[in-house]
Design a protein that fits this description.
Elements: H1 56-60, H2 68-80, H3 85-90, H4 105-111, H5 117-127, E1 131-132, H6 133-139, H7 144-151, E2 154-157, E3 160-163, E4 166-169, E5 174-177, H8 181-184, H9 196-204, E6 210-216, H10 222-228, E7 231-238, H11 241-253, E8 259-263, E9 275-280, H12 303-311, E10 316-331, H13 336-344, E11 349-359, H14 361-372, H15 379-392, E12 395-407, E13 414-418, H16 428-443, H17 447-450, E14 456-457, E15 461-470, E16 473-483, E17 490-493, H18 495-501, H19 510-520, H20 525-541, E18 545-546
Parallel strand pairs: 6-7, 6-9, 7-8, 9-10, 11-13
Antiparallel strand pairs: 1-3, 2-3, 4-5, 10-12, 11-12, 14-18, 15-16, 16-17
Helix pairs in contact: 14-15, 19-20
Bound molecules: S-adenosylmethionine.
S-adenosylmethionine binds next to helix 9, helix 10 and strand 7.
């Protein structure tokens, strides 16, 4: 009996793939998207003559919203006017982020040419266009413009009202962020809008009740606000004071009262505190020189992420989770797991690493340069500096993915895997289940301990049969067990294994199933039992079988 174990989980080298936009609605089936692969935002937007210049106030970020009543008025008005994620996409046609790379400003401008309330809002807060004051006054309520000026959403410039921020609606909240045009100006303290990596981390976040949650590197506050729903309290920290100002504004705009926003480096602002949940989407890019606070790791190669992994456990309660997106270098002569394995040693945590992509340094450098600089004039020098940096350090690939750690006393485990396609549904439950299942299997490490189980297949499992035509009619070519929800794992089976597994319906013990099966196959009982138990163990571990 032989299962094609090499197909479980689905393991293939993955490459980042360019997508049309940073707005997740426009991205399809890409897993751990490279931050900038989704944010093609360089180039000079001003030639379209529609983008407001950045005011001195904006650099300092004078966002200010202190009255809960004003905040409620603002968010109710935006929602009623249709400034929602669904409406912007479906009815207004804002499928993409405004981007000079996509050269979509003319189209977005045309789509919003009819003067009305929603188009006025979209032109200000999505496309980033100044609007004539007199015209705008016709379409928004009288209180809106004074309030938007007062709280820093708009700025008066002669006859125009200019947007100071982008407003980015998601299905739950609305976030003020720097406008996409700021990336063209290479502003180091840019506060990035919610992007597919923000959503990816949010999707994986464990959503059980938490007394105290930390969002380290909060940016607009997207992780903090999402966690506020299932946390008694959230602390949101960021090294960039502008980000903390945006996050504070966003908590107020969304009527969230249990998030404390603090400026500070790494874990410094929360010294001595313990959390049930820590989430972080840190600046993990591996580049020779720090350029943007939001994405550039200032330490050598991947050392910022390593430091966070090493430090996080002392801020976690027992059974608390730390979830972090990261990139790490793969150096010559080392398997990708080897470098990471050292990060987790002695942390007192179990760790699950999902690698989502791997890029060769040249491809990675080119992509970074394209995404983070607006003019090709410096490409040659920059590319040289990137490649010199990688070559001196023997970097042969840059990998990216998600790290999940759980603090647990006892002997800890580390589990590495490659995940090509990330499911679209929330995965917090799946994370908890995966940890619980691994605990169970570790505490049932002998064959005898499993024989009393009555395994049954998850409702998300399907067995697929493929036939090929032959001179004698249709001939079975393959049998594949598939998970159709969560990670779409698959496992090729031989017919005899499929037959054995057909009995796993929760009514018979594994011992009984193996006993009956052993009488049908021509092999020594010990061998049959061992192979059956190994298969069951693997299927339980990856969620095909429930126990
Ligand atoms: C990639 S952004 C993530 C923003 C947001 N959490 C999200 O998921 O979209 C990284 C954030 O980390 C912040 N940051 C950079 N270095 C930091 C440090 N040493 N300590 C705390 N925050 C830092 C940046 O200012 C930026 O806001």
């Amino acid at each position: 009996m032989d299962t094609k174990r090499d197909q479980l989980p689905q393991v293939r080298p993955t490459r980042g793939r360019p997508t049309a936009s940073g707005y997740e609605g426009a991205c399809h089936d890409v897993v751990f998207l490279h931050r900038f692969r989704e944010s093609p935002l360089s180039g000079n937007t001003s030639r379209f003559g529609i983008i407001a210049s950045i005011s001195p106030q904006q650099r300092g970020c004078l966002l200010n919203l202190t009255s809960p009543g004003d905040a409620e008025r603002l968010r109710n008005f935006l929602a009623k006017a249709g400034y929602t994620e669904a409406n912007l996409r479906m009815n207004v046609g804002m499928l993409d982020l405004p981007s000079s790379r996509l050269r979509n400003f003319a189209r977005l401008q045309d789509l919003t040419s009819e003067p009305n309330c929603i188009n006025t809002l979209v032109r200000w807060f999505w496309i980033g266009m100044p609007q004539d004051t007199r015209l705008a006054e016709k379409y928004v309520p009288a209180w809106f413009i004074p309030l938007a000026l007062d709280c820093g959403l708009l700025r008066q410039q002669e006859d125009d009202l200019c947007p100071e921020v982008m407003l980015f609606p998601t299905d739950q909240f609305i976030f003020a962020a720097d406008h996409t045009r700021k990336i063209d100006l290479e502003d180091p303290d840019l506060v990035l809008w919610p992007n597919p990596t923000s959503r990816l981390l949010a999707r994986f976040t464990v959503r059980r009740p938490s007394c105290l949650t930390l969002d380290l590197g909060t940016g607009t506050g997207i992780q903090a606000l999402t966690a506020a729903v299932h946390s008694d309290k959230v602390v949101a920290t960021d090294l960039n004071p502008r980000a903390v100002a945006f996050a504070t504004f966003n908590t107020r705009l969304n009527g969230i009262e249990n998030v404390e926003c603090v400026v500070g480096n790494g874990f410094e602002p929360v010294a001595g505190r313990k959390f049930d949940l820590i989430v972080s989407n840190p600046p993990f890019f591996i580049a020779p020189a720090p350029q943007y606070l939001f994405c550039n790791n200032p330490l050598d190669l991947d050392q910022l992420c390593r430091q966070l992994v090493r430090a996080a456990p002392s801020y976690l309660n027992e059974d608390g989770y730390f979830q972090m997106l990261c990139e790490w270098a793969q150096v010559q002569g080392q398997a990708w797991q080897e470098r990471l394995a050292e990060w987790f040693e002695g942390t007192g945590c179990d760790a699950w690493v999902m690698k989502g992509y791997s890029e060769d340094p040249g491809e990675y450098a080119q992509e970074h340069i394209r995404s983070t600089t607006s003019s090709p004039a410096r490409d040659g020098a920059l590319y040289d500096s990137y490649m010199t940096y990688y070559r001196h350090r023997n970097v042969e690939a840059i990998n990216g993915g998600l790290v999940i750690m759980r603090r647990r006393a006892g002997s800890n485990w580390t589990f590495f895997e490659e995940v090509e396609h990330s499911p679209k549904e929330p995965l917090g439950e799946l994370v908890l289940k995966t940890f619980a299942t691994r605990d169970f299997l570790l505490s049932h490490s002998s064959t005898e301990q499993l024989l009393d189980l009555k395994p049954r297949f998850s409702e998300n499992v399907r067995l697929e049969q493929v036939f090929q035509q032959s001179p004698n009619g249709w001939k079975q070519e393959s049998l594949t067990l598939r998970l159709v929800k969560g990670f779409h794992l698959f496992l090729g089976l031989q017919p005899v294994v499929a037959e054995f597994l057909s009995g796993c319906n929760g009514t018979q013990t594994l011992g009984e199933l193996i006993g009956a099966f052993a009488t049908k196959v021509d092999a020594p009982f010990e061998q049959v039992q061992k192979e059956c138990v190994d298969t069951i163990r693997k299927l339980i571990e990856r969620g095909f079988l429930l126990y």
